[in-house]
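Worked example

This section walks through a single chain of length 256. The input is the sequence exactly as stored; nothing has been trimmed or padded.
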Amino acid sequence: ILFAGNNDFRIVSYGPQGEVRQEDRSILVDPNQFEHRKGYYALSATRQYTTTWQKNPSQAEGTGSPHIVGSYDYAFGNIGTGSIGARLHNDSGENRVFVQTGLSTFLYDTYINAASGYNPAELEYTSSLSFRRNFGYNRAALQVTSNSAGYNIDSTLTSPTLAKYSTRLSLSGPLALDEFWTVKRLNYNSSASYVTAHNGSTTYGLSSAVTGRLGKTTALSSGFRYSGGDRIDTLDWSLNARGFYKGGLWNLGTSY
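Given that input, the structure is written out below as tokens.
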């Protein structure tokens, strides 16, 4: 089943000699191609923090309370697909309801989604505008979000540190250099973000990682993550390797 917009898949293939191959794919579905004037619905109802069998059941407040999520999408033809939805869940002993609405469409081979969420009990809101586009095997995404001072889906979060405005950009895909030394099938994943909180503080970040394959059974990944703003700047670097050896899986990693 493919949904309107971006559908992300991670395909991991295992060979008879312990070979491991991982591939990330992103399939964009034009919401304008849905059958005109036809609706699609989804509904789920569960008991919060509850599984069929659990040795140590959760003791969190609200355990066993109903968690209900529903949505309805309607195709408007060339305009795109509209959606509405609602969610009921228990947050620290209090039942909270959130509603959402949105419109998605394709324009010049770019997927565009405008969405908003609302908490009617507290009169708080969130809104976002997203763009996604594939350039061959490369994928790009941009999202801009705005939140009111008291909007949060988790009551344990305090509003002064919540994001007022945020911008996030991500790029991923295969590297033009398919092989470096003996490492093959190189792929990259990079992202950047800038966030302004309601208390006036700002944070920004940049991260990038490269993955590849060494031989038939070993996968390598290396990347860095930088974050800064009003607090102390930090820079982290990591190198990881994993693979199979005589039927067993091994994993090694280091970070600095």
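What to look for: DSSP finds no helices and 16 strands in the chain.
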